[in-house]
Design the sequence.
């Protein structure tokens, strides 16, 4: 074994997986996990923990994996995370724990994400549940949204003895984990539902079909339904469009709609009645993880898929692993290309997209070199489907119906990083609702901080 | 689960159900809608609210069979339950949320077409309860398809029923009745038209000529109903709006109906259209938004 290299992880062959919705990565078995864990040099001043937004005791759990004590490893992780099977799959480890791993200086960093995933999957297969030992303190907390921020906040508060109810607008809990991230990256029944069950086993109640701001307001939860505090983890659900001509043609979708149809509404499953457009040639506009998810979903429906992105490969905001997987599966990348108009046939259906070539100019405020149009370089890509994956912004349904809740100019709720406190007493917020679209793990970190904040607030009352 | 307390076939293929949904009943106002799912893995179906009872915690919905999902819904009986029932969604009618003194000064005309009579009813009822008498035109293809006539009569100032085939009430389209009423000397400050897209389009064309500001209620394709998917986007003036969170009611004189009608056909199949045409025969005009 080469200690400088990760134990390779088994994946479905790209040609095969391009035609199915089964999980791409098969994960480690116990043998492989123990071998990979043995590469950990157990640093005294572990940098990896600092890179983790929920501060999992990484060397601690890896030590247990090394010895083959997977159940113990799971309880170490559970001290800090309620969703390890999810995080092991979708965290950007390369820029967090693994990005800080000392092993990474000379060789490849430890495969911390795959080890976390193995431990969580092992626990699930063997019926190991997070330990529950706490007394109820009689205080009620409402959590709005059952995505990563809400589930984490609710789990942590339940462990502290709070009576927690999560309110979910959709018919199924999980937020972006169920509507956004596709089955082939994050299986819903096998992984997401199981982790949500674990949170419920802590005593957390989940009420679905409640659109806070419409069905009930935050003020009503506090004043009429007897909640002592509220956590808002409602995410960033509003899709952005470009504002170019032709965006309302038949065949233009937001990535949110396309992915929600496939994931939450189960169009990926052939027995589902949910309609979804299975285009011959699909253009996905954008370069983030959501763009990759939409592109790879369309590919699995049998479409020829192009990613159209205005900067170059280096600036793609998607995780390197996702871009790599997308390329392996046969997604075509049209980089330094920006749509200017969507073209229609005589019946109002998309028949192509007029684009312009771009070149990179000076760095903009994000530090990335900003794309500049090359005059006269317009050309047409033939397509019958266009999916806009340009990012999302927070939904104003809650902020606009809650008195005294401050939002910034991007409609994000203003909350402090340390404890998630908002401008309204007793109301806390975190995740994409505060930061705008970000990652699962950052939302979990914010849910965790807010749980601390709520505990402190209600302990000092 | 949300129990069905009452299920009734009002007329061929149009059903009324009273559903126990306390949160919705407590918060809803006329003009808003709900999304229902019959069973696990069913589609999400948006339906406008027809009536509600805050004390009983119930909401009344009226729907027409237009596809597999609504067919499945129609098979439900009193004692059964919906798997999901979420709302209220959308913005309440402006006539109801605006200052009541202003509303009282207005001469209001409602124009209801087919199953669109259901969402018109709670608005007229609310206004009546607040001392405002509104005129109502109800249009139906034929006498047998007319719904909620008695209920509407009880709350409307004047009720004008018309059938396309002249089998009951006045004869002809709702637009004919509007023209006739205006010719008879009636004056209106605002019109609210709810029905098939093609009806709303032609009502708006006429009221624009007559200079009567007109509100329409759109029921486009949507998934979540909370602003997340953007499937329900509609062009109003020079702006793109989401019907689920910005609507469902819009200034009808600014709505791009041709685009909206095209968008409604997005997932319609040739088989489905043929089925509806065959079923409805000569009365099938197309453009109803269901075909």
Sequence:
């Amino acid at each position: 074994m080469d200690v400088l290299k990760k134990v390779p992880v088994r994946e479905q062959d790209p040609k095969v997986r391009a035609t199915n919705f089964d999980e791409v990565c098969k994960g480690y078995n116990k043998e492989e996990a123990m071998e990979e864990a043995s590469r950990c040099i157990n640093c005294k001043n572990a940098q990896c923990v600092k890179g983790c937004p929920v501060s999992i005791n990484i060397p601690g759990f890896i030590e247990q994996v090394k010895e083959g004590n997977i159940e113990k490893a799971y309880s170490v992780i559970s001290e800090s995370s309620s969703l390890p099977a999810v995080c092991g799959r979708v965290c950007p480890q390369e820029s967090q724990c693994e990005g800080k791993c000392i092993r990474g200086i000379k060789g490849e960093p430890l495969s911390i994400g795959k080890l976390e995933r193995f431990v969580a999957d092992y626990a699930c297969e063997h019926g190991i549940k997070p330990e529950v030992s706490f007394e109820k303190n009689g205080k009620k907390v409402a959590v709005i949204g059952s995505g990563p921020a809400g589930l984490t906040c609710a789990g942590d508060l339940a462990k502290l003895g709070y009576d927690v109810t999560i309110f979910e607008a959709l018919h199924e809990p999980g937020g972006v984990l169920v509507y956004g991230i596709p089955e082939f990256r994050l299986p819903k029944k096998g992984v997401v539902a199981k982790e949500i069950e674990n949170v419920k086993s802590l005593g957390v109640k989940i009420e679905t079909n409640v659109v806070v701001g419409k069905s009930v307001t935050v003020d009503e939860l506090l004043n009429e339904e007897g909640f002592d505090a509220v956590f808002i983890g409602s995410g960033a659900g509003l899709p952005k469009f470009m504002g170019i001509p032709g965006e309302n043609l038949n065949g233009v979708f937001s990535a949110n709609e396309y992915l929600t149809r496939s994931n939450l509404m189960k169009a990926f499953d052939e027995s589902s009645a949910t309609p979804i457009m299975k285009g011959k040639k699909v253009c996905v506009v954008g370069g983030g993880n959501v763009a990759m998810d939409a592109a790879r979903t369309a590919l699995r429906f049998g479409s020829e898929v192009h990613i159209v992105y205005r900067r170059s490969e280096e600036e793609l905001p998607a995780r390197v692993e996702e871009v790599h997987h997308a390329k392996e599966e046969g997604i075509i990348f049209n980089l330094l290309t920006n749509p200017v108009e969507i073209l229609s046939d005589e019946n109002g259906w998309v028949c192509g997209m007029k684009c312009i070539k771009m070149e990179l100019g000076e760095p903009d405020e994000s530090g990335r070199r900003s794309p500049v149009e090359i005059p006269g370089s317009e050309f047409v890509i033939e397509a019958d489907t266009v999916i806009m994956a340009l990012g999302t912004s927070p939904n104003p349904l809650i902020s606009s119906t809650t008195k005294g809740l401050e939002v910034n100019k991007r409609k994000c709720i203003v909350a402090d990083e340390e404890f998630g406190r908002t401008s309204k007493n007793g109301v806390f917020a975190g995740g994409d609702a505060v930061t705008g679209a970000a990652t699962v793990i950052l939302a979990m970190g914010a849910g965790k901080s807010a749980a601390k904040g709520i505990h402190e607030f209600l302990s000092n009352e | 689960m949300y129990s069905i307390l009452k299920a009734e076939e009002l007329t061929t293929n149009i059903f009324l159900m009273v559903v126990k949904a306390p949160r919705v009943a407590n918060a809803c106002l006329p003009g808003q809608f709900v999304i229902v799912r019959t069973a696990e893995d069913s589609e999400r179906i948006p339906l406008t609210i027809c009536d509600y009872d805050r004390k009983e915690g119930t909401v009344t919905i009226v729907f027409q069979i237009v596809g597999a999902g609504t067919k499945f819904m129609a098979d439900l009986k009193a004692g059964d339950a919906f798997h999901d029932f979420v709302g209220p969604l959308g913005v309440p009618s402006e006539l109801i949320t605006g200052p009541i003194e202003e509303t009282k000064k207005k001469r209001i005309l409602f124009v209801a077409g087919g199953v669109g009579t259901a969402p018109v009813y709670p608005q007229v009822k609310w206004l009546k309860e607040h001392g405002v008498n509104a005129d109502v035109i109800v249009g139906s293809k034929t006498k047998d398809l007319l719904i909620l006539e008695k209920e509407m009569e009880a709350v409307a100032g004047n009720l004008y029923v018309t059938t396309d085939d002249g089998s009951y009430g006045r004869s002809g389209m709702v637009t004919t009745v509007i023209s006739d009423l205006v010719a008879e000397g009636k004056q209106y400050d605002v019109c609210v038209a709810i029905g098939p897209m093609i009806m709303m389009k032609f009502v708006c064309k006429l009221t624009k000529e007559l200079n009567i500001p007109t509100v329409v209620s759109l029921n486009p394709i949507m998934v979540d109903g909370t602003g997340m998917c953007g499937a329900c986007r509609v062009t109003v003036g020079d702006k793109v709006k989401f019907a689920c969170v910005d609507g469902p009611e819009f200034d009808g004189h600014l709505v791009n109906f041709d685009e909206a009608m095209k968008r409604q056909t997005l997932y319609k199949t040739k088989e489905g259209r043929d089925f509806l045409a065959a079923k409805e025969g000569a009365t099938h005009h197309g453009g109803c938004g269901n075909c």
Notes: The mean pLDDT of chain B is 91.
